[in-house]
UniProtKB/TrEMBL annotation:
Domain Peptidase S9 prolyl oligopeptidase catalytic: from-to ranges: 463-676
Organism: Algoriphagus limi
Lineage: Bacteria, Pseudomonadati, Bacteroidota, Cytophagia, Cytophagales
Domain Peptidase S9A N-terminal, first and last residues per copy: 3-402
Organism domain of life: Bacteria
UniProt cross-references to Pfam families, sorted A to Z: Peptidase_S9, Peptidase_S9_N
Family label: Belongs to the peptidase S9A family.
Name of protein: S9 family peptidase
Length: 685
């Protein structure tokens, strides 16, 4: 039976403007009526999707069957050991291992997460950190999905887990080089903002841990890490628009912490260490960032010396340091390049990846004294691949490519990049992939259009074996690289945030129109998907152009923008004022209100909608999608499906196990394919 949400009108007033929120009461997760309502929505979804249950199981088994259950990452060498992660058949979770001296050596299991997860409905382990002397492993466990972690310690010599733990941490851990002290960060209990750095002495009472640093500016968060050289510990404070790093000798962590460069509004920087200098990626007088070096003894801004100067058309995303080389990860015209620059001043060069649209990145390279660069690559048609690249001979060696069980032939699929003209004449790239034998540019193809478009996160073209379940059933998959990400540089991000946020939504609409005009699909066969801030995109777009889509999926969507950004007690709010704006300012309030999906629901026809949520979500509180669905159901004028699935045992990322997560994806794919089967020859098989 279709759930009916009761209305208890709550008047919310700001800047002399009144809003009435009939579902404000849903914010109380301790209220039994809230839980009953969520369970009723889950029951309604199950009822509406009952005819696809066998198909969901088929999809789940199909996607699972492509995964190599006995699998292992490519080992990397560090401090006399080869380190790797493996999975065993039937296991949901990773096993962390190492071998001493040689890959032929005896395997030592550092941590089997499957054993930690026994009897738990949710389990996530992060922050794996081994002490400098290889004696202790520290790791952090979340059993709820709210990203609040407990730190445990294991003695690697005896195999015993120590009798005490450190609760309520962020999972951000690092050891000092003195083998005695572990540093970790804690979050505010209410807002979950990471704002404190503590020092723990091994075998001591955690209640006596020393507070090293507290970040009092509510727009900043902080974390701690070591430089690649392991010579320094860094406390990195950052907001959306500013950075500040404190550093100390990792061997003498009780010394006074020094500030590398004091925070300045709109000055961002991140650093690493090599030789007598800190090497810094910064936007100082460089919108697309540049790399500078600064002497350790006096590293402040006036002593920064350009190493890689700013370029208008190239965004510097990352870098890595080696004894003989400086490697930078750069983005030009929306595509990643890896640049190799020898320290000796000889000419540098870039790697050629040979595909039209792809993703490449600097891999894990813990060793300084090597001429090999570990990097990763994949594309919409090429499975995830790990390479070693000899930076002198330029020889590229494939170490591992994701194996697709049952076989996969990339030649059967086509990937491409096309460009759509936005409302303001800006050209927006779209990456897409389809199966050649199924595709014809006749407007009859079902097409799933995905985007994110916030926080400067680029939506790169990546391979997914799960996606084959759509492509093999005639779907085209497309990624709209809308403004709000950094896909085409820092300006691309700046033009899709704050008072320019609507560019993100209109870019997506332009991409959808272009795909229809070019006959990749038609509006009655077009589907859209986005999650979190990408769910905001979906919500805004279907308010603006509901006629463009047959169906949409909004995963853990951020849709109650104004109410959330006005509530400083909600996790992550204050730290995001520079992304969305501070609605305590009337200009930002009214602009955010004009696109907030929950506030802009109208009495009109909407496409079919599937919304997913997590009861323990720390990023987007469960009540946002819940309220939005209730408002949509109350006001929309059509008979199309609107379904809400709340995972009552998980948070922002959904189920924690590698196979359990596939069940949620199978539901989403079944929803799309069920709709598409009414318009095309697709059958639910």
């Amino acid at each position: 039976m279709k759930p009916e949400a009761k209305k208890i009108p709550e008047v919310l007033e700001k800047h002399g403007h009144k809003r009435v929120d009939p579902y404000y009461w849903m914010r109380d997760r301790e209220n039994p009526e809230v839980i009953q309502y969520l369970e009723a929505e889950n029951a309604y979804l199950k009822e509406q999707m009952k005819d696809s249950e066998e198909f969901q199981e088929l999809l789940f088994q199909e996607m699972k069957s492509r995964i190599k259950e006995d699998d292992q990452s490519v080992p990397y060498f560090k401090k006399g050991y080869y380190w790797y992660v493996c999975y065993r058949k039937g296991g949901e979770y990773p096993i962390y291992c190492r071998k001493k001296g040689s890959l032929d050596g005896e395997e030592e299991i550092l941590l089997d997460v499957n054993k930690i997860a026994e009897g738990k409905s949710y389990c996530q382990v992060i922050g794996m950190a081994v002490s400098h002397n290889q004696e202790y492993l520290a790791f952090a466990v979340d059993e709820v999905g709210r990203r609040i972690y407990t730190v445990f310690f294991k003695n690697l010599n005896t195999g015993e887990t120590l009798s005490y733990s450190i609760p309520n941490t962020t999972g951000n851990l690092t050891w000092a080089a003195d083998d005695r002290h572990l540093f970790y960060s804690r979050q505010d209990e209410k807002t979950l903002r990471s704002y404190q750095i503590y020092q723990h002495t091994i075998h001591s009472n955690p209640e006596k841990d020393q507070l090293i640093f507290q970040e009092d500016d509510e727009e900043f968060s902080c974390h701690i890490h070591k430089t690649k050289s392991e010579a320094f510990l860094f406390i990195h404070s950052e907001s959306t628009i500013s950075s500040e790093i404190r550093f100390v000798d990792a061997k003498n962590p009780n010394q006074e912490w020094k500030i590398l460069q004091k925070r300045i509004p709109h000055l961002e920087y991140a650093a690493d260490h090599y030789g007598d200098h800190f090497w810094i990626r910064t936007n100082h007088q460089a919108q697309n960032f540049k790399v500078v070096k600064a002497p350790i003894e006096n590293p402040t801004l006036e002593n920064w010396e350009d190493f890689i100067p700013h370029r208008e058309d190239v965004l510097i995303e990352d870098f890595d340091l080696f004894a003989g080389f400086f490697v930078s990860q750069e983005r030009n015209n929306g595509l990643t390049q890896l640049m190799i620059q020898p320290w000796d001043g000889s000419p540098g060069h870039s790697l050629d990846f040979g595909e039209e649209t792809y993703t490449a990145w600097i891999g894990h390279n813990p060793e300084f004294e090597t001429e090999y660069l570990r990097f990763g690559f994949n594309s919409l048609i090429t499975p995830a691949s790990t390479y070693d690249y000899h930076m002198v001979t330029k020889e590229k060696k494939l170490l591992k490519q994701q194996e697709i069980i049952g076989g996969y032939d990339s030649s059967e699929y086509e990937s491409a990049r096309v460009w759509a003209k936005a409302e303001d004449e800006t050209m927006v790239p779209i990456s897409l992939v389809y199966k050649k034998s199924h595709f014809e540019a006749n407007g009859k193809n079902p097409l799933l259009l995905y985007a994110y478009g916030s926080y400067g996160f680029s939506s790169d073209a990546y391979f997914s074996s799960n996606r084959l379940s759509l492509l093999d059933r005639r779907f085209v998959f497309a990624i709209a690289h809308v403004r709000g990400g950094e896909d085409l540089g820092r300006k691309w991000y700046e033009d899709g945030k704050l008072l320019k946020k609507k560019n993100t939504f209109t870019d997506f609409i332009s991409c959808a129109n272009h795909l229809i005009e070019q006959k990749f699909t038609s509006s009655d066969r077009l589907y859209a998907m986005g999650g979190s801030a990408g769910g905001l995109l979906i919500g805004a777009v279907i308010n603006m152009r509901p006629d463009l889509f047959d169906g949409v999926i909004a995963a853990v969507p951020f849709v109650d923008v104004v109410t959330t950004m006005l509530d400083e007690s909600i996790p992550l709010t204050t730290g995001e004022y520079q992304e969305w704006g501070n609605p305590n300012n009337p200009e930002y309030y009214h602009y955010m209100l004009s696109y907030s999906p929950y506030d802009q629901v109208q009495s009109q026809e909407y496409p079919n909608i599937l919304v997913t949520s997590g009861l323990h979500d720390s990023q987007v509180q469960y009540w946002e999608p819940t309220k939005w669905v209730a408002e949509l159901r109350d006001l929309k004028t059509d008979q199309n499906l609107i379904l809400l699935h709340t995972n009552m045992k998980a948070g922002h990322g959904g189920a924690s196990g590698r196979f359990e997560a596939l069940k949620e994806l199978a539901l989403e794919y079944a929803f799309l394919l069920k709709l598409a089967s009414k318009k095309t020859e697709i059958g639910l098989k």
